[in-house]
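The record is given unchanged here:
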Amino acid sequence: MQFVDEYRDQASARSYARAIRDLVTRPWAIMEVCGGQTHTIVRYGLQELLPEGVELIHGPGCPVCVTPVEILDRALAIAARPEVTFCSFGDMLRVPGTHKDLFTVKSEGADVRIVYSPMDAVELARRHPEREVVFFAVGFETTAPANAMAVYRAHQLGLGNFSMLVSHVLVPPAIEALMSDPETRVNGFLAAGHVCTVMGTAEYGPLAERFEVPIVVTGFEPLDILQGLHMVLTQLEQGRHEVENQYLRSVRSEGNSPAQKMISEVFSVVPRQWRGLGEIPASGLGLATAYAAYDAVRKFDVGAISASESPDCISGQVLKGLKKPRDCAAFKTRCTPDSPLGAPMVSSEGACAAYYRYRRD
């Protein structure tokens, strides 16, 4: 049965590739927003199935990658404090700050722990009232409901020793910033299906209309992406710019209302600094006034920490779709997963990591 399924997938992939080749009459540049989609594209060689004139541009849809160095330095400063138990998902531990990463701070004696849910950090705070437990909340809209629920639960329990270092970012403002950049080459977008599972598709309509770009909400399997590309390219060839949903098995136009309600209860929209893109207005989530006591930046007074990226790292240009990882002089030489200059080389959704792992050129 597995062989039959794989054969059907391969046949469907070839069918979509032929349909795209028959459809396209001119060059187009399509950006996949999500880093998970980037890894699928690079791992399965989907670019090689497309006509020469169709270029896939890797976007800023890796939340680890767009987290600015100053946030990482704030995390390092908090984690190094002797009274703190610093909790994070594993993908943040190798991301370099200005001088070190969380693994290094842990090796120096800090209490840094990998958790699998923000609720694990809440439970640690409940069981260890003598410790200050901090959770590193990084992500797009996808992880915001769970992080909001953790703060909400800590508030219910009256846990004064729990706080959160928040670096949440929002996808639609990033698309707006990219399309407002005079250097952009993007003609259409594959939007991230998991983000739209939470937030729905309503926010994308005004963007498609304003910038005259088709936006197709797409899943993460190779066939999802090929079908999404066919839908985007069909719109471009027909002169349309609409929002379409390829990921019908998971995404509803209205999204997940209870999740949205939890986000709006705990968080408020704030400006946010993005690696490579700079500050984008109304592009992030910060703790709302009612939950300000759980803000680790305020609690540990690290808001004044600022930092700059390595001058040898072009991850900002990669995240804006202006460069490919192999265009970087440090790629695979001075920048590797064991010794990264920037987050895209170590994140599981980073474009540099995908090229390092799956490409030979």
Summary: The chain has three domains: 2-64+184-241, 66-170+255-299, 315-358. The chain has a mean pLDDT of 93. The radius of gyration is 21 Å. The longest strand covers residues 278-287.
